[in-house]
Amino acid sequence: MKKILLLALFSITLMGCNDPESAAAEAAQLRAEQHPERTYVGEHNYYTMESSEHAAFGRKKDLKVMYQDFPRYFVEKAKEWPKEDLNDASSYDLPRFQFAWANSSSKDEYESGLKIWSMKTDGTDLRLVTDATIGFASIRNLARSPNNRYVAWAGSGGQKGVYDLKTGKVTVVQKTTSPLDMLWSEDSRYLYHERYRNRYSRWDSETGEISEIDFKIRTEAVLTEDKIIKVTDAAVVGYNLKTNERLFVLSSDRSLSDKERIFNVKSISPTGRFAWGSNQDYGWMFDTKEQTMKQMVDGFVPAQILGKDAHYSALGKMTYVTIVDRVEDKVWSWRAFSHGAMSGEGTLYNGLANKGLWFKEGK
User: Average pLDDT of 17-21?
Assistant: First the structure.
């Protein structure tokens, strides 16, 4: 009887050794023991928590440098990384950045290809959005629908595509060379885009139809049912789309030369209340509700990405994140990735979450 029990136990032990799940668990435990500072995501990927760094700006604006730990991601196998999931409410408790990133150091064709990624504004919850952009040499513009379901991208030549996070479907909206501007409707049904120079169209996400429109759009704009607020080359303009009436114009200083007035950096807050424009000499913050404009010389921080109520702003490069609290004059800077390269600039979406604040209370 004892021999039978010993044989049974020996058989169970052998079965455990040959169990792939058991072997993977043991390997994961070994990795954790060897590298306790790492949090593994899959077998080949991990992140570490590292302190933010000193942020150097070319402007004379005094900002208080904030130090705290942020994730630094080491992504070697994108297929192992969790994808953004519309059903995961925890991913949407903060505003999010999206951006195109590739593991440029990899020799693997898939891993080195550009993919769209996203993360919360506090640097956590990195997600792979889609790999449908592999094959593009560069991604120059990204636009997320207000309901977070659709992400649209424009390649360097203006070719445009849309990925549906709910169904996984990819739609080619524009195959030929075209300008980069794209803008979603308030209800997330339509993607407005500049199809040819000064010719504008909308793509219907429900029917797939493309039809021409009779008004101009910009990427730096907010569109509601009957109104559009957009940042142009040197002004912020509001239009009533039903009457084609211009509601307001908030312009940079007309006494300046054209070179001094033109915006090199433009952004608009999620509700359209605030807008930003700047160049190497001047910066302007516009309040479209109060119809005011504040002009700054030298002592300002550019806002490539502008949050709700202009409380926070960020620079567009997401490999090295720089966030400014424009109310309390604070700045955070950290390296989000250990390696790899971005294409184009990051953009903000889900911007009204957490009352528009980019960090949770107490962090």
Answer: 62
